C-alpha cells in the first residue's frame, strides 16, 4: 500500500494484486480521451473487496466518520466505516438529496459537478476520512474535503483504490495524507 507524499514509492500488496487481477478498463468512457477504471469486478469478488476494504481502513485509524463519494465511494466508504467502527456519510451528486443541503461545485477532467451533504448532519469537530474509487485530477476529493472543512470537520486523510499519477491529482489534496492502493 502506498501511504506517503511520494507517489513513486510503492509496495505491492494483496489489494494491489487483486486490483490488477480484477479491474476492467474502458477506453473513451464516459467521454473520448478518458480511460475509465471499472472496479465492479473487484467489488463482486469477495477476496478482492475484502482486501481493498482492509487496506483502505488502515488510512482511517482514529477516524470517527468516513465520507464516501458518490457512487463507488459509497460501497467503499460503508465497508471502511464498518471496519473502523465509525459512521459513514454519503456525499451525493447534486439533486439526489432533499433540501436543505450544503454543496460544493468542482471541475472534472471532462466537465463540472457538485457534491452535497444534508445540512442536518453535523460534521463539526469530527475526524473524517474521505474515500473514493479513483484519484485522477483531484477535483472530487479536494471538493469533498473543502465542503467538509467548511462545516468544521477535520480531514484526517483521503483513501482511494486507484491513482492516475500522470494527472497530478495528489497535488490538489492539501493538508492531509493520501493513501492509494494502486497507482497507474
Question: How would you characterize the overall build of this protein?
Answer:
- The chain is 28% helix and 34% strand.
- The protein has a single domain, classed as 3-Layer(aba) Sandwich (Rossmann fold).
- The longest helix has 13 residues.
List the helices and strands and how they pair.
Elements: E1 2-3, H1 14-22, E2 24-27, E3 35-38, H2 40-44, H3 46-58, E4 65-69, H4 72-84, E5 87-93, E6 101-108, E7 111-118, E8 127-135, H5 139-150, E9 154-163, E10 178-183
Helix pairs in contact: 1-3, 3-4
GO molecular function, one term: adenine binding
Keywords: Cytoplasm, Glycosyltransferase, Purine salvage, Transferase
Enzyme class: transferase
TL;DR?
This protein has about 180 residues and is α/β, with parallel strands linked by helices. The protein is built from five helices and ten strands, in the order E-H-E-E-H-H-E-H-E-E-E-E-H-E-E. It has a single domain, classed as Rossmann fold (3-Layer(aba) Sandwich), CATH 3.40.50.2020.
Amino acid at each position: 500500500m502506498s501511504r506517503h507524499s511520494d507517489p513513486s514509492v510503492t509496495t505491492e500488496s494483496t489489494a494491489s494484486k487483486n486490483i490488477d487481477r480484477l479491474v476492467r478498463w474502458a477506453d473513451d468512457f464516459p467521454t473520448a480521451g478518458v480511460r475509465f477504471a471499472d472496479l465492479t469486478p473487484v467489488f463482486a469478488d469477495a477476496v478482492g473487496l475484502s482486501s481493498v476494504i482492509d487496506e483502505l481502513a488502515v488510512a482511517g485509524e482514529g477516524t470517527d466518520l468516513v465520507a464516501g463519494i458518490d457512487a463507488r465511494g459509497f460501497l467503499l466508504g460503508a465497508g471502511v466505516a464498518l471496519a473502523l467502527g465509525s459512521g459513514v456519510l454519503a456525499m451525493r451528486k447534486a439533486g439526489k438529496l432533499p433540501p436543505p443541503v450544503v454543496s460544493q461545485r468542482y471541475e472534472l477532467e471532462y466537465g463540472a459537478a457538485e457534491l452535497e451533504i444534508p445540512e442536518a448532519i453535523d460534521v463539526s469537530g469530527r475526524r473524517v476520512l474521505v474515500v473514493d474509487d479513483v484519484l485522477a485530477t483531484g477535483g472530487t476529493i479536494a471538493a469533498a474535503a473543502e465542503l467538509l472543512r467548511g462545516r468544521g470537520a477535520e480531514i484526517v486523510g483521503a483513501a482511494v483504490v486507484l491513482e492516475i499519477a500522470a494527472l497530478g491529482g495528489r497535488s490538489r489534496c492539501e493538508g492531509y495524507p493520501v493513501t492509494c492502493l494502486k497507482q497507474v
